[in-house]
Design brief:
The protein starts with a helix and ends with a strand. The protein is mostly beta strands and 223 residues long. The chain has 1 helix and 12 strands, in the order αββββββββββββ. It is 5% helix and 63% strand. Residues 1-18 form the signal peptide. This is Transporter.
Length: 223
């Protein structure tokens, strides 16, 4: 049950620009007056009470530094999320940035809606070369349903794009928390329409975790 609910916390933490299909948060925010619709199916198997998750999110840039999003998660959860860029500076072949992302989720129970989770993530993005970005994340999440707290972290690498118009974006990450073994995750994002329409997928395994695995598939439309 704890591992299943950890997935809900991870989804609640993600704003639309958070590097789907990675579990890691990234620092860039949606441009002011721009919006994104994003959806995903996630199958997270840990050998416990595992339930596939789906979610749909609308997020928009509300200022030059901040984005806000509304999420619907199945089964029976809704959330709001946001991200604010704290710092940005030129770095090698691009821009380094540091952002604070947060998520607040509510879960439907027999008596109505109750708060289920609160998440805060500090995320940094660094251009390590002309082709590669590195994402670093450290955060805290609180499960109000089970009275649990955890510290989550991630280190990820993302390619700026291969092939025609950079449509193919491979990426990989190591992520985890202070309650279990870390996970290794590989992912791919494909731009069907450059800078507008994307599909993505990922496949991950928990290190030393037997058959524990993570599979995701999703999409994003920017407008």
């Amino acid at each position: 049950m704890r591992s299943t609910f950890a997935l809900s916390l991870a989804l609640a933490a993600c704003s639309a620009q958070a590097g789907r299909p990675l579990q890691s948060e990234d620092a860039p925010v949606i441009d002011e007056h721009a919006c994104e619709v994003e959806g995903a199916y996630t199958d997270w198997r840990t050998g416990g009470d595992d339930t596939p998750q789906t979610y749909l999110q609308l997020a928009c840039g509300v200022s030059a530094r901040t984005e806000l999003g509304l999420q619907v998660l199945k089964p029976r959860e809704i959330g709001i999320a946001g991200k604010t860029r704290l710092l940005a500076a030129p770095w090698r072949d691009g821009e380094a940035a540091l952002s604070l992302a947060w998520g607040l989720a509510h879960h439907h129970v027999d008596v109505g809606w109750r708060r289920s989770s609160v998440v805060l993530n500090l995320a940094a993005t660094l251009p390590v070369s002309r082709d590669w970005l590195m994402h670093l994340m450290l955060g805290h999440q609180r499960d109000d349903v089970h009275g649990q707290r955890s510290t989550n972290w991630a280190v990820a690498a993302e390619h700026n794009g291969l092939g025609d118009e950079g449509r193919w974006q491979p990426m990989a990450e190591v992520f985890g928390d202070d309650h279990g073994r870390p996970w290794l995750n590989g992912a791919l994002r494909v731009a069907l329409v450059p800078e507008r329409v994307f599909v993505d997928a990922s496949l991950g395994r928990r290190l030393g975790g037997g058959r524990a695995h993570l599979m995701t598939a999703g999409f994003k439309v920017a407008f």
